[in-house]
Design goal:
With about 270 residues, the chain is mainly alpha-helical. The protein has helices at about 30-55, 60-65, 90-115, 120-150, 150-155, 170-215, 230-240, 245-250, 255, 260-265; strands spanning about 5, 15.
Length: about 270
C-alpha cells in the first residue's frame, strides 16, 4: 500500500498525505513473496471448495480423480451441445466469498512471514476488501438491478436498423449491429458503476483507516485494484451472447484475478 510522506516545513515533523511517490526501501523477500502466494491460493481454494459444495458439486477426492480435468467445476465451460449441464456460478455473493478467502489467506501469510509490517497489512486488507471488493460489487450489482428494472424503457430508445426488406447478407450484418447497439446501455452502466464504486470504495477505506489507525492515508488507485472485477467483463460478454463458451471462459479466470487482493495484502509494507 502506497503511503507517501512529506516533510512539514513549519513543524519539522513527518506527516503522511500521499502526495509524493516514494517507494519502500525494504525489498520484498522471496520467502514473503512465495509464502503469501501459497496462503492466498489456499484461501481462494478453500472458498471455491465451499462454493462448489454449496452448488451441489462433489468434493470427493475419488470422484474428482475419475473426472476429466476439463469437467471439474472450476474449469467446466458452457457447451451448446449440452446446454442443460450444470456449471459453477460466480455471481455477487460468490465473488465476495472468494475475495474474502483471498484477503484472509494473503493477510495470514503476510503476518506469518513479515511480522514487522503488520499494521500496513491490516490497513491494506481493509482497503482491498472494502475499497476494491464490497463497495464496487455493491455499485455494479445496484447498477445491474436498476438497469433490469428499466430495461424495456431504455432499450425502446436505442436506434435499430429496419430489417424487413434486406438481402440475406445485409440482414445478418444489420442484426449484428442491432444486437451491439442494444448492449451499449448496459455496458455503459456497468463501466460507470464500476468506476464510481472503486473511487468511492477507495475514499471510504482511506477514511476508515484514518479513523482506526489515526494516520492520514491517501492510497492511490492502482491498476491491480481492477483485478477483482473481471467478472464484470464476463457479464458484458454474456449480455452480448447469453451463455457462451467465451463468457464462461472469462468467468473461469475470475478466481485467478481474485488472488491479487490477497497478494497485495500480504506484501504490504510501511512506506
Amino acid at each position: 500500500m502506497t503511503i507517501n510522506a512529506i516533510s512539514s516545513i513549519n513543524t519539522n515533523k513527518q506527516t503522511n498525505f500521499g502526495h509524493s511517490h516514494r517507494k519502500s526501501k525494504e525489498p520484498i523477500s522471496d520467502t514473503l513473496r512465495y509464502g503469501v502466494l501459497a496462503t492466498t491460493l489456499t484461501g481462494v481454494g478453500t472458498a471455491l471448495a465451499f462454493i462448489s459444495k454449496k452448488q451441489g458439486f462433489s468434493l470427493s477426492p475419488s470422484r474428482i480423480a475419475k473426472t476429466p480435468i476439463k469437467d471439474w467445476a472450476i474449469f467446466k465451460i458452457y457447451n451448446k451441445k449440452h446446454p442443460a449441464r450444470k456449471l459453477l456460478e460466480l455471481e455477487e455473493k460468490e465473488i465476495v466469498t472468494v475475495a474474502a478467502g483471498s484477503v484472509a489467506g494473503g493477510l495470514a501469510g503476510g503476518l506469518i512471514f513479515d511480522k514487522k509490517n503488520r499494521k500496513a497489512k491490516l490497513r491494506e486488507a481493509l482497503n482491498q476488501m472494502l475499497g476494491n471488493v464490497l463497495v464496487p460489487v455493491a455499485f455494479v450489482g445496484g447498477g445491474a438491478r436498476l438497469y433490469d428494472k428499466f430495461k424495456h424503457q431504455i432499450l425502446s430508445h436505442v436506434p435499430q436498423f429496419k430489417t424487413d426488406s434486406l438481402t440475406k447478407n445485409k440482414l445478418k450484418f444489420a442484426k449484428g449491429v442491432n444486437k451491439f447497439l442494444k448492449i451499449i446501455p448496459s455496458a455503459g452502466i456497468t463501466i460507470a458503476a464500476l468506476g464510481a464504486g472503486i473511487i468511492t470504495g477507495n475514499k471510504v477505506s482511506n477514511f476508515i483507516n484514518e479513523k482506526v489507525y489515526h494516520k492520514k492515508v491517501e492510497r492511490k488507485i492502482r491498476g491491480t485494484d481492477f483485478a477483482p472485477h473481471v467478472d464484470d467483463l464476463s457479464m458484458a460478454v454474456t449480455l452480448m451472447a447469453d451463455k457462451s463458451p467465451i463468457s464462461t471462459m472469462i468467468t473461469r479466470t475470475v478466481p485467478a484475478f481474485l488472488c491479487v487482493p490477497g497478494i497485495e495484502t500480504g506484501k504490504a509494507k510501511e512506506y
